[in-house]
Amino acid sequence: MNIATGMNTVNGSGGPLQPLTAEQFVIGCIFHDRNWLIATRAAGLQAGHFHDPALRAIYAALPDEPPEQAGLVAVLAGNGMPFEALSPVYGLAARVVHANPDAVYQAIGELAARPLPKTIRLIPFNEIARTPGASYIVKGLLPSTGMAVVYGPPKSGKTYWALDLMMHIALGWDYRGCRVKQRPVVYLLFEGADDFADRVEAYRRKHLRDYGADIPFYLVAVPLQIVADHAAIIDAIRQQTAAAGVVVVVDTLNRSYTGSESKDDDMVRYIQACDAIRDALHCLVILVHHSGKDPSKGARGHSALLAALDAQILVTRDKETGVITAELEYTRRGKEGAKFVSTLEEICLGQDEDGEDEKSCVINGEGPEKTHAKNSGGRPLKGLPVFRAALNEMIAAYGKDHPVLVSPGVQSPVVMAVDYELVRAEFLRRYPPSSDNPARDADAKRKTLKNVIKHNAGLFGWETTPDGKQLVWNLPERQTR
């Protein structure tokens, strides 16, 4: 604010005057009429709004209530400035106030609108301390706060996998041998809302038939842009959830993004908006994202995204077997390389208007401890996901209710079982060839199948019927609540 024009008019001399800054003018007005201090307090003016160090110190020393004139003089003296030194400012400000009192309010408003400087505290070495017990949400996979990416090619199953993981977090169930700290989950879904609702219903029918408690999982299915709408997202989560430690999922990055994923300025703004959500809610933000044409080259877009991440998980799907693999490619904490192998199990949701089954899928899978199990020859047991896929496919097509005999006269709940020979044939069809020699390949598949059954007895139920038919079914997933 340049006060020179108003002062020239008041002075009437026509000669040049040194213009007052807004800061000088406001301080001069306070010392001209101490009641102007009340107006500055009402406007929210703080010492940090003053750029001039001397004037900032003077305003900081002023009491909340207007002091007597002697008190003002004491403030100046305490800051090494005699009252006479302020006389030119005092006198010029007084002239402007008499001519145009609104100029004072204009100057106060101008100062109060300035952004306050950041307060930076230097933490002494002896005060630097870690926070015990707050390092993870899923141990060895996801940190308690920060930003992570789950990415993969289209149709890789990344949303199925992400939903399954988020449900374990919301429910507080251990995830495939990894400890989980229960947290509210807010899932921002920006594509495929109808399909997502089907997947939730499939999960409910598979895992939550007898679960009566409320689940802290929340869906947002309206179009939003993270850069433009992050403040509204923060407010909504604060007002509608127990926001402490929440997990926020953005599915997908592309549908919540403005600009080009490859342009540094656009990506930096997006990352800053995600950081604002993280900092405001003290939470973990997970971005579901796409890979480029070559998944081995990482997530699509500018490299600034990778630099901002605390964890990156690649989800791929084998086109031949349908096996979904989620691999922890990068983490700031712990070890990289953990893999979670899964298959999709079809769940019937009901019938459509034509009487045909409506279906969706849920994830079935094994954790690192089973993914890396060894057979007698020391090689990884790669056939387990294929066997589970074959079993689930045959149960969906040919499974029948089967009461399992526990002891004479006592029966357990009914299970969906199927003839093992059907599963065996489907496994041999699905399992990828390992040799150009048909006989050798067939023998290798039979050995793999034998090892899968031998080393995973706790995953499947078996029973031989009176007519000699062998039935097989899935045993309930062991979950820690």
Describe the structure.
The chain is of the alpha/beta class and about 475 residues long. It has three domains: about 110 residues, DNAb Helicase, Chain A; about 230 residues, Rossmann fold, CATH 3.40.50; about 90 residues, no CATH class. It contains 16 helices and 15 strands. The strands form three sheets. The protein has a nine-stranded mixed β-sheet. A four-stranded antiparallel β-sheet has the order 12-13-15-14. The radius of gyration is 34 Å and the shape is elongated. About 35% of the residues are buried. The N terminus is likely disordered.
Structural class by sheet pairing and helices? alpha/beta
Number of domains: 3
Q: pLDDT below 50 for ≥5 consecutive residues: which ranges? A: 1-17, 369-381
Number of strands: 15
Main sheet: strand order: 5-4-6-7-3-8-9-10-11
What is the percent of helical residues?
Answer: 25-40%
Sheet-strand content, in percent, reads: 15-25%
- Overall morphology: elongated
Rg (C-alpha, Å): 34 Å
By CATH, the topology of the largest domain is Rossmann fold
Largest sheet: 9 strands, mixed
- Intertermini distance: 64 Å
Count of individual helical segments: 16
* CATH classification, class level of the largest domain: Alpha Beta
